[in-house]
Amino acid sequence: MTTPLERIRPAATAARRVRDLAHTFDLRATGPWGEETVTSVASDNRVVSIGDLFVALPGANAHGARFAADAVARGATAVLTDDAGAALLADMTVPVLVADDPRAILGLVAAWVYGSPAEHLTTFAVTGTNGKTTTAYQLDHLLRSLGFTSGLIGTVEMRSGDRVLPSRLTTPEAADLQALLAAMREDGVRTLAMEVSSHALALHRVDGVRYGVAGFTNLSQDHLDFHGDMQSYFEAKALLFTPEHSRRAVVVVDDAWGVRMADAAQVPVATLRTVPDGPDADWTVSDVAPHGTGSAFTVTHTDGRTLRTSTTLPGHFNVANAALALVMVVEGGAHLEDVAEALATGGGLAGVVPGRMEVVGAGSETDPRVVVDFAHNTEALELALGALRATTPGRLVVVFGATGDRDKGKRPAMGAAAVAGADVVVVTDDDPHGEDPAAVRAEVLAGARAAAEREAATRTVEVREQAPRADAIRQVVAEAAAGDTVLIAGRGHETIQDVAGVDVLLDDRVEARAALNERTA
Ligand SMILES: CC(=O)N[C@H]1[C@@H](OP(=O)(O)OP(=O)(O)OC[C@H]2O[C@@H](n3ccc(=O)[nH]c3=O)[C@H](O)[C@@H]2O)O[C@H](CO)[C@@H](O)[C@@H]1O[C@H](C)C(=O)N[C@@H](C)C(=O)N[C@H](CCC(=O)O)C(=O)O
Ligand SMILES: Nc1ncnc2c1ncn2[C@@H]1O[C@H](COP(=O)(O)OP(=O)(O)OP(=O)(O)O)[C@@H](O)[C@H]1O
């Protein structure tokens, strides 16, 4: 999805001398040299304002130095780049500072310019393949229930006080992140719940932030186009659990990667087990029972502290997300009694998470239940279907696709997972990006059809292909019966589909609601 390049920045910051910046970070300097100052930092010319340090980074598509002249025209008062960038800059009217690897110091530089804003907040970071957004929203909900003005940064949105913007990345680029943290300080925000992606850790986006508590959800195959293999993916995530990035950690040890993460962590760790069988842990979840649309559960520490509460979100994985949020807040210093009181008043962990197991139609005597979820990898799809199967008396129908230009290895596996979990599998498009959508569908379908054939002796699963996505959603919802559940998976809260560089307006929830209204009509 493409979202406008906008950012939340502080209204006022102190001026920092370029000379001091060069000295602090041991930067080489060229160009005019006087008493110039910077008040803020940007790494994209399109968001530069007066007084910015423009950091021109080398990239896969372009060198940021190509945009330095425009940045200066917009008011940048200094440029920081590498040797290759400096070679592209001629006749600059502002100081040009040079570092060997400007991306590696950008977070620290931006934190320096803004006066280390993260140090003025109580910060919670969540990483893992699945569950980051949900856990961050549960953290946000809990922190607000405790009376804090809480900021939020993640895949869906960025929020500082009353200022809210849709997100372009899960974790913003370093300069944008530090500007946002400085804005939070200005807006009187006290606590922060934030998602940290493996890309962000590998690309130094969160350098300069040391989180109070870092949480780990789980690890499964995803993003191998970027990381190469699971070990490198794991190592990128593990960077969050080093003293540079966190003070303490809460690690879910339900899977083997969690156990490894708890071992690898270089900060004090509290472990959390949310499944009945598994390794010993400091905190365990027990007595999970259906409760409204979600589950009630008990969290207990080995020292005897215990709390029973509930989440409104369906599926066991949402018990894990809610328990992780709760334990992170307690490990961050909140008293369990205060948390219990806040949860009792607020009806448990009742935070709505846009596009995550979001019930668009609850189902009725005439209509199917329709749920929109962000599951876009094999494990998430399995779990989402598993969670809905338990409460579906009729057929379970899934509509989904795989993303173009991303981790191709997961496509057949996602097809197979859909067949294992559903009765009707409709393969459609996700974000094709630059790839031929039909070719992406074919890879998912190959996995789905092979799995359906393997299962043919014991059960019949209908597998079909339909595109574009809006048509697939409309038809599936029109065809489904009362008692059925339709899961529309993969795009969650997203509202723009990237088809060959063209932004197509598409919101699964809007399409599903329209299809339900058409049934009624
Ligand atoms: C691998 C990766 O993350 N790349 C990011 C990186 O790209 P890049 O270094 O190749 O940059 P580039 O496009 O060549 O541009 C070079 C420099 O020139 C600047 N520029 C570029 C064009 C222009 O007109 N003006 C300008 O100033 C850019 O801001 C950049 O600093 O810097 C760009 C500018 O910020 C990002 O848009 C781009 O994210 C790409 C689009 C992306 O898709 N990233 C995804 C994979 C990502 O980071 N995902 C994770 C979440 C994953 C998950 O868990 O689901 C995330 O945290 O969002
Ligand atoms: N703890 C969990 N374990 C496994 N699957 C989960 C978990 N939590 C959520 N999911 C599934 O993964 C999907 C994505 O959830 P969520 O957006 O919270 O994760 P995320 O880590 O932020 O994902 P992404 O990095 O892709 O933005 C959900 O829609 C749900 O299907």
Automatic annotation (TrEMBL):
<dbReference type="InterPro" id="IPR013221">
    <property type="entry name" value="Mur_ligase_cen"/>
</dbReference>
<comment type="function">
    <text>Catalyzes the addition of an amino acid to the nucleotide precursor UDP-N-acetylmuramoyl-L-alanyl-D-glutamate (UMAG) in the biosynthesis of bacterial cell-wall peptidoglycan.</text>
</comment>
<dbReference type="GO" id="GO:0071555">
    <property type="term" value="P:cell wall organization"/>
</dbReference>
<feature type="domain" description="Mur ligase C-terminal">
    <location>
        <begin position="355"/>
        <end position="492"/>
    </location>
</feature>
<dbReference type="InterPro" id="IPR035911">
    <property type="entry name" value="MurE/MurF_N"/>
</dbReference>
<feature type="binding site">
    <location>
        <position position="197"/>
    </location>
    <ligand>
        <name>UDP-N-acetyl-alpha-D-muramoyl-L-alanyl-D-glutamate</name>
    </ligand>
</feature>
<keyword id="KW-0573">Peptidoglycan synthesis</keyword>
<dbReference type="GO" id="GO:0005524">
    <property type="term" value="F:ATP binding"/>
</dbReference>
<keyword id="KW-0961">Cell wall biogenesis/degradation</keyword>
<keyword id="KW-0067">ATP-binding</keyword>
<dbReference type="GO" id="GO:0008360">
    <property type="term" value="P:regulation of cell shape"/>
</dbReference>
<dbReference type="InterPro" id="IPR005761">
    <property type="entry name" value="UDP-N-AcMur-Glu-dNH2Pim_ligase"/>
</dbReference>
<keyword id="KW-0460">Magnesium</keyword>
<keyword id="KW-0131">Cell cycle</keyword>
<keyword id="KW-0132">Cell division</keyword>
<dbReference type="Pfam" id="PF02875">
    <property type="entry name" value="Mur_ligase_C"/>
</dbReference>
<dbReference type="InterPro" id="IPR000713">
    <property type="entry name" value="Mur_ligase_N"/>
</dbReference>
<dbReference type="Pfam" id="PF08245">
    <property type="entry name" value="Mur_ligase_M"/>
</dbReference>
<keyword id="KW-0963">Cytoplasm</keyword>
<feature type="binding site">
    <location>
        <begin position="128"/>
        <end position="134"/>
    </location>
    <ligand>
        <name>ATP</name>
    </ligand>
</feature>
<comment type="pathway">
    <text>Cell wall biogenesis; peptidoglycan biosynthesis.</text>
</comment>
<dbReference type="GO" id="GO:0051301">
    <property type="term" value="P:cell division"/>
</dbReference>
<feature type="domain" description="Mur ligase N-terminal catalytic">
    <location>
        <begin position="38"/>
        <end position="110"/>
    </location>
</feature>
<comment type="similarity">
    <text>Belongs to the MurCDEF family. MurE subfamily.</text>
</comment>
<keyword id="KW-0133">Cell shape</keyword>
<keyword id="KW-0547">Nucleotide-binding</keyword>
<keyword id="KW-0436">Ligase</keyword>
<dbReference type="InterPro" id="IPR036615">
    <property type="entry name" value="Mur_ligase_C_dom_sf"/>
</dbReference>
<feature type="binding site">
    <location>
        <position position="205"/>
    </location>
    <ligand>
        <name>UDP-N-acetyl-alpha-D-muramoyl-L-alanyl-D-glutamate</name>
    </ligand>
</feature>
<feature type="modified residue" description="N6-carboxylysine">
    <location>
        <position position="237"/>
    </location>
</feature>
<dbReference type="InterPro" id="IPR036565">
    <property type="entry name" value="Mur-like_cat_sf"/>
</dbReference>
<dbReference type="Pfam" id="PF01225">
    <property type="entry name" value="Mur_ligase"/>
</dbReference>
<dbReference type="GO" id="GO:0005737">
    <property type="term" value="C:cytoplasm"/>
</dbReference>
<dbReference type="InterPro" id="IPR018109">
    <property type="entry name" value="Folylpolyglutamate_synth_CS"/>
</dbReference>
<protein>
    <recommendedName>
        <fullName>UDP-N-acetylmuramyl-tripeptide synthetase</fullName>
        <ecNumber>6.3.2.-</ecNumber>
    </recommendedName>
</protein>
<feature type="domain" description="Mur ligase central">
    <location>
        <begin position="126"/>
        <end position="328"/>
    </location>
</feature>
<dbReference type="InterPro" id="IPR004101">
    <property type="entry name" value="Mur_ligase_C"/>
</dbReference>
<dbReference type="GO" id="GO:0009252">
    <property type="term" value="P:peptidoglycan biosynthetic process"/>
</dbReference>
<dbReference type="GO" id="GO:0004326">
    <property type="term" value="F:tetrahydrofolylpolyglutamate synthase activity"/>
</dbReference>
<feature type="binding site">
    <location>
        <begin position="170"/>
        <end position="171"/>
    </location>
    <ligand>
        <name>UDP-N-acetyl-alpha-D-muramoyl-L-alanyl-D-glutamate</name>
    </ligand>
</feature>
<dbReference type="GO" id="GO:0000287">
    <property type="term" value="F:magnesium ion binding"/>
</dbReference>
